[in-house]
Amino acid sequence: MLKIGRNDPCWCGSGKKYKYCHQPLEEKLEQLKKQGEVVPPRKLLKTQAQLEGIRKAGKLNTEILDMVAENIHAGMSTEDINRLVHDYTVSHGGIPAPLNYCGFPKSVCTSINDVICHGIPSEDEILKEGDIINVDVTTILDGYYADASRMFCIGEVSAEAKALVEATKEAVDLALKEVKPWGHLGDIGAVISEYAYSKGYTVLHDIGGHGVGNDFHEDPYVCHVGVRGTDMVLVPGMVFTIEPMINAGEEDFYQDEENGWTIYTEDGSLSAQWEYTIAITEDGYEIITH
Hints:
By secondary structure, the protein is an alpha+beta fold. The protein has 5 helices and 15 strands. Strand 11 (253-255) and strand 12 (263-265) form a beta hairpin. Helix 2 crosses helix 3. The longest helix is centred in the N-terminal third of the chain and has 24 residues, at 48-71. The radius of gyration is 20 Å and the shape is globular.
């Protein structure tokens, strides 16, 4: 880490002297590190200018999901959703982050029923009454990223499907109550997994949340199964997603060998996911997009 003098301008660009800005926080982090805690490096702490850019991307990302909510219905294809997302994003000055990301061919992920994540929109995939679908939107605006997903119930869905969708949303809301500066990432995983398991569901260990903002995927990895008081310390300026993938059946999954992206439940059971991007603040958290 670059050494900065107490009276030098702070690295974050605030214009304040280091001693009046990030020095007290970084000294606290250094002390925690000596005590054996996992602490975020400076690069994971967003500056005020970066946070403002991420907020703007988040505002557009939320607007896109609101637009999807207004238009999604039985009889439309998942490619119709892709077009809606792509056109709205571009017309509002954004870039759909998934498009061409590591070869992903579409502007949004659409994951229906037993698809856990990374469903690829298709003209041949038609939404029907009783489906549940996750629509996962990531938006780039002026170089900054924001990421969120929502579940949608198409018409009347089964009691089982409705319960899973509602429980997954509740797991995220419970996790948010645990989020606070100087807490731990493990607190998030603990509350999500405890709640999901109490409902008879399983939670994916191997696919989770991630840092976001300056890039699509950043550190830290956010596991949704955890132990309180463990993993990285939560520090003001961190930005990451909480996005548990919860299965009605077993946790086991497989990847579509043909397209190399889509993840399915091994046993064909339903899966649900909600995703928020949040920022850690001095006194709690801020929802960037949901």
